[in-house]
């Protein structure tokens, strides 16, 4: 998920960021370049829209140079203001600085995430360190920090609203955390570290993208497709045809292609080949191997944290979160870990029993887990998700999400076709509230393509604010569903449907925002809180209202039978051992990497040793192995923060029980309290206070164990 106001992204050093590559640098020996149209204010309806039609890739580097220069001039004007520092002329002025750079960053970020082809990788390598350097120039500006500190310590602070006080506190503390109080030599070294990290982040991401695009499992014998659903086979045939091999089948190296093969393919050697190809991304011992990059990233992060007065990178990253300390995250994770491992042992025993009864003569391996789990699911719950998939049409589920948003928060979606988009697959909806007032735009980019990073995410193209005038938000959801044959509906798995609702929850968090300052808008909240609203929205997928209206058979149009819906509900906690352990293993590795006191770390060895130490079952892998763990090595944003999904899910499980107690997930009073206390307030209040206002008390973590079907004692 990407959704921060640019000033925040710069302070987090989490945007794209590395050293100028002359071959793509359009600034020629100091000769001023003409202004790119990409730097102009956005025009058109709804307060302006992203001008994708005006993007010229060859202009990006020069445009960034100009936008950064303009942003620096705006920062200097604030720092050198002769008037005494006030909240208005310093803190609010910072909120409004860098608008041109923010717009340009949005255009480029979408290309680097969704259209990473041709010159884009080299442009990203050129631009990334420039953004990192610019971020440091802001936080290391002594005059600017003196003004912020003066406002922070002034009598004016007590007269500010609570939201303004929070914005001021956050701005002051972020500057301190970014080295504003360091000596000049230390500031210089810190900036060098940040620029180097920016380059490493980009190289890491590009290496993973290379392995996702370059490794394909080819199938030329139809007999090897046995067990796979027809829709999956058709998508594999289409992928092969697109790659110039009609008559064959291609398994691309992404989760959406890997998962159904591991789940349904009877051909065990095929499952193993696909598994090894996918989980070895970034770890193939070639020019795109990420282990050396990771070792350097970890060392630089530790050095930076020590310079800033923190024992580890994790302590530095967690200071502004709900968890506060690494130990608090470990306490929660280790509360769940042994229960999840015990459940895995039960799940494996059930699978091994079926394999033995079939005469397979195998020991369950990671490439067998999903396959035999489906057999256990069918035996225990009489549930075959192949029977569910015909009812999961992507377009109908999209309609269901929108309908639920209308029932809960009064949001109305109207598709518009006259706005520019960055790819023909992208569609746009205008979003209005119950009174017909415009609240934002929602862009939907659902399909996989070459140059698009894997996974699913939400982005904010423009933050909601109301400083001088109301400015509405623009958000997007991006996925990697595989297109079927022309004219055929795209059918997705149950897990993908859950993810679809999850990411839409992030979008709703942005669309419901009603704050004054962009840095406090929508999803600009603590990392371990931001997943709470999105995880909560997952619960609306299996409400009877959505199932009956929008989960309809793609051929007959009949709603999902109640018997099948009941089976899904009865199996809700099935395979939770697998789901929890594969996630938590990655979260624990993340936290242990970033609290380690080792001077040098061999990532592969550290991973093996740590998994053995915590008792990782042999029968399944981490969700994200270290060499392709983009959450924590493609930027700083989730580093020492992957635990946050579990932290947020503790909040989610407890909050969902409020709707259960109300008797309906569409209870108006409960939905209004969720909107008022969580979705609309952004980062204007402490997350713990927002949750407490909604729930009526602090979180009860035992709800998390109940949700996953684990014992609570």
TrEMBL record:
GO CC annotations? cytosol
Q: Which UniProt keywords apply?
A: Carboxypeptidase, Hydrolase, Metal-binding, Metalloprotease, Protease, Signal, Zinc
Enzyme Commission identifier(s): 3.4.15.5
Q: One GO molecular function term?
A: peptidyl-dipeptidase activity
Give the matching CDD domains: M3A_DCP
Q: Which residues form the signal peptide?
A: 1-26
Query: Pfam families, alphabetically?
Result: Peptidase_M3
Keyword Zinc present in the record's keywords: the answer is yes
**SUPFAM superfamilies to which the protein is assigned, alphabetical:** Metalloproteases ('zincins'), catalytic domain
Q: What cofactors does this protein use?
A: Zn(2+)
Domain Peptidase M3A/M3B catalytic: start-end pairs: 261-709
Q: How is the cofactor bound?
A: Binds 1 zinc ion.
Any GO BP annotation: proteolysis
Protein family per UniProt: Belongs to the peptidase M3 family.
Report what the protein is called: Peptidyl-dipeptidase dcp
Q: Which species does this protein come from?
A: Rosistilla oblonga
Gene behind this protein: dcp
